[in-house]
Design goal:
It contains eleven helices and twelve strands. It is an alpha/beta fold and 275 residues long. Helix content is 35%, strand content 27%. Helix 7 links the parallel strand 7 and strand 8. The strands form three sheets. The chain has a six-stranded mixed sheet, sandwiched between helices. A four-stranded antiparallel sheet has the order 2-1-4-5, with helices on one face. Helix 3 packs parallel to helix 6.
Length: 275
């Protein structure tokens, strides 16, 4: 992992104008470009079906299992194109994805799940043991449940287990897909606070895909908004939080204050990017 004091200005990941097609006919991403700085938290926002998960899978090279492929553009990590690498090679370079829905090995214990994250490491058992204790420091609930089968733990504990398993690979960047999905608000805040701590103390960079725009923009440094496979807005998170369009369509608020879901659905303000 990186020294947390290192600069956030260097670009780790560069996605340049990519298109993704499924089954040779379904165009899902249409010229998506984004960058993730070293030591930063970048939010990829948008509703269900916007293309967030596809973007993360394109970066981590997991599309082929779903008959998808990047047909245009490029994906670079530390200045080197990586779209042709297999997922294991990308993990060895320091990039790992935490999948939507957590995907723990249900029949294994929590600790066994965590240890599977270290399978690519070659720095010895002592280093792995130190990182396991580091994971337990960030997720004390996992230490309590270390001997429990993962399939019998709560949704929040499984999300913590999935992030902890990723940390065991000693990543430089984590692609985090929908970390708030299915979790109570209090647990969502707990997960995002841990993400913030990992970013600040361990120097891990994050690209997180999230439907919960409100919480994501409170913790991210910068954000991109996807709609129908296109980036429609980007900028520093603080500016996006104050943007009238973001307030109207993604935070459920307008100049008059908070709006009901029905009012938001009516799209009284026309989306400027569709004009």
């Amino acid at each position: 992992m990186l020294d947390a004091a290192e600069s956030k200005t260097d670009t780790l990941l560069e996605v340049n104008n990519i298109e993704v097609i499924y089954n040779h006919v379904i165009l899902v991403l249409k010229g998506v470009s984004l960058s993730v700085p070293q030591g930063g938290i970048t939010a990829l926002l948008g509703g269900n079906g916007a293309g967030k998960t596809t973007t993360l899978k394109a970066i981590s090279n997991l599309l082929h299992s779903e008959r998808g492929e990047v047909t245009k553009g490029s994906i670079s990590y530390r200045g080197t194109e990586v779209q042709e690498l297999d997922p294991e090679a990308l993990v060895k370079r320091g990039v790992i994805q935490v999948m939507e829905g957590r995907h723990c090995f249900e029949h294994l214990t929590v600790e066994e799940n965590l240890m599977t994250g270290a399978y690519t490491r070659t720095d010895g058992a002592a280093a792995v043991a130190r990182d396991l204790e580091m994971v337990y420091d960030y997720f004390p609930r996992l230490k309590t449940r270390r001997s429990s089968q993962a399939g019998y733990t709560s949704g929040g504990e499984q999300q913590m287990c999935a992030i902890g398993r990723a940390l065991m690979s000693r990543p430089e960047m984590i692609l985090l897909d929908e970390p708030s999905m299915g979790l109570a608000p209090q647990l969502v805040e707990e997960i995002f606070e841990i993400v913030k701590s990992l970013n600040e103390k361990e120097g891990v960079s994050f690209l997180l895909a999230e439907q919960n725009t409100n919480v994501a923009l409170r913790y991210a440094h910068q954000g991109y908004i996807l709609e129908s496979g296109r980036i429609v807005m980007e900028g520093p998170a603080a500016e996006l939080r104050e943007n009238p369009d973001v307030k109207e369509f993604y935070l459920g608020m307008s100049e008059e204050g908070r709006k009901s879901f029905r009012d938001v659905r009516s799209y009284r303000r026309r989306k400027r990017w569709l004009a």
